[in-house]
Design brief:
This protein is an alpha+beta fold. The protein has 2 domains: 11-43; 50-147, Cyclin A, domain 1 (Orthogonal Bundle), CATH 1.10.472. It contains 5 helices and 6 strands, in the order E-E-E-E-E-H-H-E-H-H-H. The chain has a 3-stranded antiparallel sheet, with no helix packed on it. A 3-stranded mixed sheet has the order 5-4-6. A hairpin with a 5-residue loop joins strand 2 and strand 3 (37-43). Helix 2 (81-98) runs antiparallel to helix 3 (105-119) and helix 4 (121-131) runs antiparallel to helix 5. It is elongated, with a radius of gyration of 23 Å. It starts with 10 loop residues before the first strand and ends in a 9-residue tail after the last helix.
Length: 156
């Protein structure tokens, strides 16, 4: 690791610590030439597949773009950012475990719909109406019936 102060390639690790989750390693380093100290972080880089769009073009997976789509559906809904991040983590985990180098955007959309259905029913309907291109009220009604919980009757 090069020293950020003098660009010397020879540095020494002084201290190493893992964060609480165990997914990041923090290293304190000392430059052997200028004797200044600095910190580096080491984390796993996931190899996510390329996204194949409907028109056949390929693009890199973009978590921020996916998050923006979800946030649009979740606008003014009582869902925490931690819940959204956890849903994104589950989607990414699923994409990695597929073991494929490319994945169709439709498949990602279905993963998003599944997560939104768990997070918030209104957001699910919002996203599904755009994603599945609802064209009439019957399609909305079908989607609403799909998420609507049957009410249990109380017996007297």
């Amino acid at each position: 690791m090069k020293c950020p102060y003098c660009a010397e390639p020879n540095t020494q690790v002084v201290d190493t610590r893992e964060n609480e989750d165990g997914d990041t390693v923090r290293r304190r380093r000392r430059c052997l030439v200028c004797d200044k100290r600095f910190t580096t972080y080491e984390r796993v880089e996931l190899q996510l597949p390329l996204v194949v769009k409907k028109n056949g073009s390929r693009t890199e997976y973009d978590r921020d773009k996916l998050k923006a789509s979800m946030m649009l559906a979740l606008r003014k809904r009582p869902v925490t950012m931690d819940s959204v991040d956890a849903a994104l983590d589950r989607i990414e985990e699923r994409l990695v475990t597929l073991g494929e180098r490319e994945v169709a955007s439709d498949r990602i959309g279905e993963l998003v719909i599944r997560e939104l259905k768990k997070l918030d029913k209104v957001a699910y309907i919002r996203f599904a109406s755009v994603y599945r291109n609802f064209e009439d009220l019957d399609e909305f009604s079908d989607a609403i019936r799909e998420v609507k919980k049957p009410r249990t009757r109380r017996t007297p």
